[in-house]
Amino acid sequence: MNILALDIGNTKTTFFKEIDGTLIFKRNILTENLNYDTLKSYGEGCVVVVSSVVKSQTEKIASCIKLNPFFVDSSKIFFKHEYSNISSLGADRISNISAAIDLYKKSTIVFDFGTCITSEVIDSSGTFVGGFIFPGINLLAKSMNSYTSQLPLVDTSTFENTNPNSTESAIKNGIFNGVTGLLSKFIESMSSEYKTEFKVIATGGYAKMVKEKFLRIDEVVPNLSFIGMKRVLREWYKNVY
């Protein structure tokens, strides 16, 4: 099966194209620059799989009859869960949960560093038990700049753990130490509640940088969403056909 997968996020969209089981390209573009005429040519001869958290883009691609896209959504969930309102679970989170179940088959916590930081907790039985949603690193920086009169917009693409002896370094230290403190506390809380050690994985734009400063992340998986989208597709075809 040849696959063209689109992971449509609030800020960025990632294309994955797999031919005969081999990933032949991966491309990132700004979501606002998505071109559906180009997409039609990319999708020729492929099953088009879409994970989208942007309603307007979901509606646009749904209208591309030629593509006949397969959407990752709550109606395609195959895993056990304890979520109180499963229909509200976003496609990005469904993909990440599906990938973690596919890859690890053990107690796992997933952190996705996108526009928002999300976490997914899967217990030892493969059941999704919940997680959190928190403002992302760049969103935190933009919020402080937008909602104050004097705080500057800082560059969050790098982080040096130095003495916060300027306004810019104080903001960056606050953001990164706040985020890593949240992650640490969350891991401790889940480990205590479930009385187990979790495999901790990360994905998303800031995952590699955070792992360099936060050693409790075991592994960064850049293509986690793609792995999960394929797992959802396989389960759907297995159950429907």
Descriptive key words:
single chain; 241 residues; alpha/beta; Nucleotidyltransferase, domain 5; 2 domains; 11 strands; 38% helix
Q: Major sheet: size, sense and barrel closure?
A: 6 strands, mixed
What is the N-to-C order of secondary-structure elements (H for helix, E for strand)?
A: EEEHEHEHEEEEHHEHEH
Query: What coarse outline follows from CA principal-axis ratios?
Result: globular
Which range best describes the helical content: under 10%, 10-25%, 25-40%, 40-55%, 55-70% or over 70%? Answer: 25-40%
Structural class: alpha/beta
Mean pLDDT: 91
Total strand count, please? 11
* CATH superfamily placement of the largest domain: ATPase, nucleotide binding domain
Looking at the overall shape, the CATH architecture of the largest domain is 2-Layer Sandwich
At the first level of CATH, the class of the largest domain is: Alpha Beta
* Number of distinct helices: 7
Percentage of β-strand residues? 15-25%
Uncertain spans: none
Distance between the termini: 15 Å
Number of domain modules: 2
Q: Return the CATH topology of the largest domain.
A: Nucleotidyltransferase, domain 5
* Cα Rg: 19 Å
How would the blueprint of this fold be written?
Elements: E1 3-8, E2 12-19, E3 22-30, H1 36-42, E4 47-52, H2 55-62, E5 70-71, H3 91-104, E6 108-113, E7 116-122, E8 128-130, E9 133-135, H4 137-146, H5 167-194, E10 199-204, H6 207-213, E11 219-220, H7 224-240
Parallel strand pairs: 1-4, 4-5, 6-10, 10-11
Antiparallel strand pairs: 1-2, 2-3, 6-7, 7-8, 7-9
Helix pairs in contact: 3-7
